[in-house]
Amino acid sequence: MLVKPDTDLLLVVDVQNDFCPGGLLPVPGGGEVVAPINRLMGRFDHTVLTQDWHPADHMSFASAHPGRQPYDTVALAYGPQILWPDHCVQGSRGAEFHPDLDLTRAELVLRKGCDRGIDSYSAFMENDRTTPTGLAGYMRERGFERVFLTGLAFDVCVLWSAEDAHRLGFAAVLIDDACRSLDLDGSDGAARLRLRELEIPVVKGAQIGR
């Protein structure tokens, strides 16, 4: 699969300290995505990073709901919401990118989850499914047609980003070995099934060339 320099974009989703070993919401093997992502950046002319960036009292945190525990599900105004441990709080070390991630190639850093009342898994749309982050507009104005997705977590933010890219008319490709899953209650398998249903390719980094 050859990269088209002018119309392909590498999207690096939430490779932040809190999602890596030692963080407040670690994805198993999360730190292992850094090296393959850095290698992939050398094959793309255009890279965008997303950064979870929550206020300290974000409504997706279990701590904002007395009596609730992390990984409980509650009903918020926009629908069901999994409650998470406090993570990626604005300005905290946990919200910083993994120290080994190559930031020099990023043309845009898109912060998401900034609204206290709405979580934002997808790089394109907040969890109310109506509020855009601005990434789709950026891609259209820059002439990007296809997005290659990497990062954390495969079965949450990467999956939702791929679904939205597809729904918004962009071609999407998942790079499997540059992602890791939380795999809560079989969510990794469910994510792979969903991608097959949408006919979104899941490939290995070695299959990407230019």
UniProtKB/TrEMBL annotation:
E.C. designation(s): 3.5.1.19
Q: Which GO terms describe its biological process?
A: pyridine nucleotide biosynthetic process
Q: What is the enzyme's main class?
A: hydrolase
**Annotated pathway:** Cofactor biosynthesis; nicotinate biosynthesis; nicotinate from nicotinamide: step 1/1
The record's InterPro entries line, in alphabetical order, gives: Isochorismatase-like_dom (IPR000868), Isochorismatase-like_sf (IPR036380), Isochorismatase_Nicotinamidase (IPR052347)
Keyword Metal-binding recorded? yes
Q: Where is the Isochorismatase-like domain?
A: 9-190
Note the Pfam families from the entry. Isochorismatase (PF00857)
Q: Which keywords does this chain's UniProt record carry?
A: Hydrolase, Metal-binding, Pyridine nucleotide biosynthesis
Its Gene Ontology molecular function terms? metal ion binding; nicotinamidase activity
Q: Which PANTHER family match?
A: LD05707P, PYRAZINAMIDASE/NICOTINAMIDASE
Q: Which family does it belong to?
A: Belongs to the isochorismatase family.
Its name, as the record gives it, is Nicotinamidase
Record gene name: pncA
